[in-house]
Design brief:
The chain is built from 4 helices and no strands. It is mostly helical. The protein is elongated.
Length: 124
């Protein structure tokens, strides 16, 4: 079940932080960066959960790659927000994204059979 995956759980926690941070952005960014950041963050766990429910491992992996793309999109949007000085870059926030990215890559590798002895995909 997707709710048992740590990558899913961490990405859900990450959404809460994104909502907290973006609530402090200027009102004129409501339909710009705020919306983009929130949708990018929400896309991470939703694609994990959608992938789990698919018929094949190949489709599951495809949705994990979509989730990974959302991680990269969110990283970029956070960098833009930082440069515009809408928030102070939080190392913990960037660290969490990196952890999620690594977990997704490991899960993809495990599903592809390239686990390299790194553990069980069910705990990722």
């Amino acid at each position: 079940m997707h709710t048992d995956l740590i990558a899913y759980q961490k990405s859900m926690d990450f959404i809460v932080e994104i909502y907290r941070i973006t609530s402090l952005f200027p009102p004129e960014e409501k339909y710009g960066l705020v919306s983009q950041l929130r949708r990018g963050a929400v896309s991470i766990p939703t694609n994990i959960s959608e992938g789990v429910s698919r018929n094949s491992t190949k489709e599951y992996i495809r949705f994990l790659y979509i989730s990974l793309g959302s991680v990269s999109e969110t990283e970029c949007l956070l960098e833009i927000s930082k440069r515009l000085r809408y928030y102070e870059a939080e190392k913990a926030l960037n660290s969490e994204l990196l952890v999620i990215k690594k977990m997704l890559l490991k899960l993809i590798g495990t599903l592809k059979g390239n686990d390299l002895g790194m553990g069980n995909a069910e705990i990722i």
